[in-house]
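Box 4.2: Ligand-aware structure prediction
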Amino acid sequence: MNPFRFQNPTVLYYGKGQIEENLVPEVKKYASKVLLVYGGGSINRSGLYDKIQSLLIGAGVEILELAGVEPNPRLTTVQKGINICRSEGVELVLAVGGGSVLDCSKAIALGTKYNGEVWDIYSKKVRPEEALPLGTILTLAATGSEMNAGGVITNWETKEKLGGGSPAAFPKFSICDAENTYTVPKDQTIYGICDMLAHSFEHYFHPTEHTALQRRLIESVISTVIEYAPKVLANPEDYQARETIMYCSTMALNGMISMGVQGDWACHAMEHEISAIYDIPHGGGLAVLFPHWMDYVMDANPSRFAQLGERVFGVSRDGKSDREMAEATIAKVREFYRSIGAPERLADYDIGDESLQTMAAQSVRYSDIGQFKKLNADDVLSILKASL
Ligand code: NZQ
Ligand code: ZN
């Protein structure tokens, strides 16, 4: 494996009743004035907004608000939050929502302390060392943003969706009560499942040798997602299933399964270019891309696919070559996506071939992408064409 240093400072609270027990004591460690950041109204409808207000007001915490964070959060919204934090002397950003709200809040926390344009952080000009303290209450299992230091922001003017972050952006605390995910609609539940699977795949496919335990850990996450996805879709208020899926999403991108490996991340790079232009749900884009990416790269190391197929998808050897095993594994991946109702083609989002060249060029704007197999703009174009 590669040499690595691991540190994850986020205090994680999981389970029923954790908001009532831990929100106020955690907030009070950092602040008497908070910016409450949330999305388009799901927390108002679920009653979570009222619960949080009453807990914080009851504890004498002053609350300012930034509502209306978009899915695929926008730079303009981040800037609004930064302006409030600076002018009002906010001491902690409290994100309540899905990955978009959390990512927007991370950008606000970083941008408030950064003496320059916040976009510099996402266009990789700077890696800030300071941020306002951030706390999160997660309402959608997908991104792992609750326990990592990254975030993804869209600059709608330049049609760029870029990931960035800094160790300073780790949430100080995150509270994950799966009851708060009961109201996630079916399509968003599916996208979340696709995203956590994608994070697992991104870490599974890489050229680093001697990563046996990492692969076993990832196989466990993928197996668990495959087992529990149908349960959560059949019964959205199955607490154990919602909690298990939520825990899978946290584990898939909090650094625990990826120590010592350099993940692939080509599909994420390509998906961000699609979202930047068409504003589609991240997990949906990944579900479309992954099988086509797998077809394109499998020859780089078919035995990796064979191992995944044997251990996770029940593909039996029966005298098959590694390449035949790889093909059978990819067929199983497609079958799983289909079984949960994930999108299969870019056409499902009314995306045609009009911007493929732009997306391919932008995907490799910094360098070729991918680790399992390096992809240049022509490679990306081929994968995008196959995904139409
Ligand atoms: O805005 P509200 O009203 O809250 O509605 C949201 C939104 O419409 C809704 N929702 C969330 N929780 C709900 C709920 N509806 C009912 N009940 C609830 N409990 O779901 C919709 C989608 O929310 P969003 O936050 O956009 O979804 P997700 O968590 O999938 O986040 C996607 C964003 O995260 C980025 C993606 O690129 C995308 O911008 N990512 C962030 C990562 C990270 N920080 O580590 C890594 C990922 O790979 C990803 O790129
Ligand atoms: Zn993702």
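In the box above, the bound molecule is 5,6-dihydroxy-NADP. The chain has two domains: 11-181, 186-387.
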